[in-house]
Design goal:
Elements (H helix, E strand, L loop, with lengths): L1 E8 L5 H19 L6 E8 L25 E5 L10 E8 L11 E2 L8 H4 L3
Parallel strand pairs: 1-5, 2-3
Antiparallel strand pairs: 1-4, 2-4
């Protein structure tokens, strides 16, 4: 079992932006790591306190394939650290895999690249 990290930011606190940016990040996480919905134990989403227009977890239901309907998802608010990145959505996808941790591809979009530039630049 491994965790796959993802994160993105939104420019506006509106439902469409939240779902669209989250969906794009999820799709890349799935593609880059060859994830099947049946391999996913659960997905946790956290948002910074200024994001409250929609649940980013709904973007999971927008992924191609009916099987994503059955993946457990949960949202929470990130700890409001004063110097933290604003308008940020973080994703932790827990999957059943034999892939070594060093080969997991973590995905960071938009301003969230600054959270882990060492992982964001990984080829």
């Amino acid at each position: 079992m491994r965790g796959i990290r993802g994160a993105t930011t939104v420019k506006e606190n509106d439902a469409e932006s939240i779902w669209e940016e989250t969906r794009k990040c999820l799709e890349e996480m799935v593609t880059e790591n060859k994830v099947l919905p049946s391999d996913v134990a659960h997905i946790w989403f956290t948002v910074t306190e200024e994001i409250n227009a929609a649940f980013p977890a709904k973007a999971t239901r927008m992924l191609e394939g009916e099987e994503w309907t059955y993946v457990p998802v949960m949202c929470a608010t990130e700890i409001p650290v004063p110097s933290g990145l604003k308008r940020c959505i973080r994703i932790m996808m827990t999957v059943n895999t034999d892939v070594p941790a060093s080969e997991i591809v973590h995905v960071f979009h938009n301003e969230a690249i600054q959270l882990r530039p060492d992982l964001a630049q990984k080829d």
